[in-house]
Amino acid sequence: MESNLQQVIRNLLVSYETVGGLNNTDGLNLPSTRAIESICEDLLQLLFPGFHDEEPIHGNCLTQLTESRVTSLSARLEDQICRSLRTTQPDCPLSLAREVLGEFLASLPATRELLSTDIEAAYEGDPAALSSEEIVLSYPFVETIAIQRCAHLLYKAGVPLLPRMMTEWAHARSGIDIHPGARIGNHFFIDHGTGVVIGETCHIGAHVKLYHGVTLGARSFQKDAEGKLVKGGKRHPNVEDWVTIYPNSTVLGGETVIGERSTIGANVFLMHSVPAQSLVYYEETQLKVLSKRHVPAAVAELEWVI
What we know:
Blueprint: H1 2-18, H2 33-47, H3 62-85, H4 94-106, H5 108-125, H6 132-138, H7 140-156, H8 162-174, E1 177-178, E2 183-184, E3 189-191, E4 197-198, E5 203-204, E6 209-211, E7 215-217, E8 238-239, E9 244-245, E10 250-252, E11 257-258, E12 263-264, E13 269-270, E14 279-280, H9 297-300, H10 302-305
Parallel strand pairs: 1-4, 2-5, 3-6, 4-7, 5-8, 6-9, 7-10, 8-11, 9-12, 10-13, 12-14
Helix pairs in contact: 2-3, 2-7, 2-8, 3-4, 5-7, 7-8
């Protein structure tokens, strides 16, 4: 067994020398995925005190607990911001990371106000929701949008890597994939949530409701003379105020605009703009419902094939 392990070690070392792109030895001090997990958990505790704690929080302890949490988060997040900035600016001073951190922390109360509108939208938009506590504790979109709104602050500040790592942490937990670059207005609600994808350059207005399986994506990707993808540019649609998009619909393209108060029905594939107050849906031209008691034998056999 010992000889087998030594051979495995030698093979791995050879792989480290020959296979590029997977190593970061003697390289940049990159942000840590484990540190980001802890930071995201702590952010949720700060944003929703008492909802992400094993023990109840008493009001007379809240000041001391908040001071402790902000101090701990500040030190760890400053380090991760600094690591992230230095991936593109090797000589980036620590003072810049502290400036970004200060603005981020100062924005947390406003972020909580936005999140309160999201919870309100969920309560008003879902007849199954019986209380705001139920929504915070059990609706997957709450954690996702909370982390995305925090990550968006860092994205706007020009911090690389870190915002995407944060939203991917939330994506792994909820199945909802929202890029940190997406701009999302107040009173946002994703019902059920699984399989939702929202791209980087998507602009979403206020009072927008999405259902599971919705994709707000890119229509195509430009390439340069060498055939490589051109990065950046407006690639994802705009969704204006009071729009509802039902399950498994796909809206693509940076020039696509869904006008305010429009409704996109289920299973729609859309690559062009629609004006305000539009209703977009597919007619069921092929759907048939037959009585199994009177269906022809040849058709009945299809039941077993499917």
